[in-house]
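WARN  no MSA supplied for this record, continuing single-sequence
INFO  ligand: pyridoxal-5'-phosphate
INFO  echoing inputs
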Amino acid sequence: MSDKTVSAGAYFLGPKSENASWLRSEFQAVLDRWFDWRRALFADDPSPLPEQVRLSPDFLAEREIMAQRVRELTELMAGEVPKYTPRYIGHMVSELSVPALLGHFATLLHNPNNTSRDVARVSGRVEDEAIAMLAGMVGYDPAAAQGHFTSGGTLANFEGVWRARYRMDHCLSLGLCIAERSGKPLDPVASAHMDWSRFSELAAAHDISEAKLRAASSVLGNPFEIAARISEASGRDWRGPVLLVPGNKHFSWLKAANVFGLGEEAFWPVALDAQGRLSLPALNAAIARAHSDGRPVLAVISVAGTTEAGEIDPVDAVCDRLDEYRQSGLHIWHHVDAAWGGFLCAMLGGDAEDRLEAGARSALKAIRRANSVTLDPHKLGYVPYSCGAFLVRDRDSYANSLFAAPYIDRAAANDRWMMTLEGSRSGAGAAAVWLTGKTLTFGPDRFGRIMAGTIDSRVFFSRALRDGNPLVRLLEPADSNIVCFSLARPGDTLSEANARTARAFAGFVPDPAFSVSRTVLAAENYGEMINTHVVGYDGVVDAPTLVLIRCVFMNPFWENEDFRAALMPEFLARLETHIN
Ligand SMILES: *Cc1c(COP(=O)(O)O)cnc(C)c1O
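INFO  complex generated
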C-alpha cells in the first residue's frame, strides 16, 4: 500500500448502504467463484438435478416455500438492534468491515473445520497467517508466537489459565517427586514457579520418569491425594495456587476460577488505583501474601481496555515487577486480557500513537513481554461473531493438554484439536481477520488510523457532552474510546446522582434515537476512583456503587464532521429530555 493514510469509508458499507453496489458485486463474485469451483471439479459426474426435475411443479413449490420463509426471516431481522449506525454507542459492537464480512462469507461457503487439517487444508494455513498478523500487531515475534482463534474473549482467557496451570502442574509434580525421593522438604512456591528450562534441567538431573511425574500431577491424578502428598513433603497444609486479577476484571475470570476448579476463594481481586487501573503496590502485596501463605501465583492478569470504562492497566510496570521475581527464579505467568484494547496496538509505531496517553502507550507496548494475550476480533476488529483469539509469546508457552514436556516434539503439531479447549472450530473468523490484515493491515497508517479515529471520536463526544450539559460528570481518565458519565448537581449525594443517572438511562432504553449502555462500578474495587469522581462535584459518597451511562466509540463514521454536527445536538437534546 503506497497510501500514507487509509480511506476508512471504503472499508465499511456505510450507514446508508452507500457502498452497496460495489459490495453486492463482490458478494456476487465470491458466489460465482464458488459455483464455478463446484462445476469444474468432477465435471464428468452425472447431475442428480437435471433441468426437468428442477422445473417440476413440486420442485418449484418447495422453492416458493423457502423463498417465503427467507423473506420472513429477513423481515424479522429488520426488528434487530441496529448496531451498524453511529447512533449505536451501546455495547462493544458496531458496523462490520467489508473485508471481514467478505472473508467470513467466502470461508463460510467452504465450511472448514479448523480443528484439523484433514478438514481444513487451506483454512488451517489461513489461521496460522492470521495469528502471525495479530502477533505482529501486539509486538510478539510472529515467527515464534503461537495461538489460535476461539469463540471469543472468554474462551481465550480460559486458554491462558489452561496453559498457566499446565506449566505450574508440571513444575510442582517435579518438585514433589524430587522432594519425596530426596527427603528434603518441598518448597511449593519455588517449585511451582520454575520455568521450562529449569524443569528440563532438574528432570534430567534427577532422572524422573514421565510415569512418576504423571502420578504426581494434580491434574491427571486425584487432586486430594496429591494435595496430601504436597502437604506432607512441605510440612505445611497445601491450599493451592491463587489467581491474581485486577478488580476491574471481566466476569470471565471468575468463570475461569470456577471451571478450573480452583475454588472462587483462590480468585484474588487486586485493588485498583484512583484511575481505575491495577494498583502496583496492591499487586506486590498480593504476591507477597500468597507466597507467605505458601501459595504460588497461578497467573497475574492485567487488562488492556476494561469492559466497564476502557481503562488500560500498567502492563509495563507489571512486567517490570514480574521480571524482578524472575531474577530470583520465580517465573510468574502473566496474561494480558486485551479483549477490548488489543487492537489499539495497531496505532503503535506511527503518528497515530500520540492519541494515546503516555501511560496507555507504554502499557500497550509492553504486551509483547507477557506470556499470553487475549484479543477479540469480534469487538474492535470489526469481525463478525464469534471470533476471539488467544496468543502466546513462544512455543513453550503454548504447551498444554499433552502431558509430554514441551521440548518433546509433538507428533501432530500441525493439528490444533489437542491444543484448543474447543473442538470443532469455524475457519470463518480466521479468514475475516486474514482479509482485514491483507487489506487494512494492522499497522499505524491504516488499521491504526481507524483506531486513532475512535479515540478522536471519544474526545470530541466527551467535550461536547461536558460543554453541552452542566450536570454531566465525566469519568476520568478515559484511556481508550469509551465515555462514561454520571449526572450530578454540585453537592449532590452519590445516591441522588445515581438515581438521576439511572433515570436518564431508563429514558434512553426505549428511545430509538440512540443506544447507550449502563455500567455500575462497585466501591469494593473502584473505591478510590468513585471518591475522586464524587469529590469532583463537591458531592458526598453515601452509596456503595457509582451508576454511569456508558458510550462506546468504535463506529468509524463518528469521525465524520457532518455526522457529528447532526448527531451531537440531538444527543444533548435527548439527554436533556431523559434527565427530566
Ligand atoms: C469482552 C471481554 C471479554 C469476554 O469476551 P467475549 O468475547 O464476550 O467472550 C473478556 N475480557 C474483556 C476485557 C472484555 O472486554
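The domain at 153-375 is CATH 3.40.640 (Aspartate Aminotransferase; domain 2).
INFO  checksum written, moving to next record
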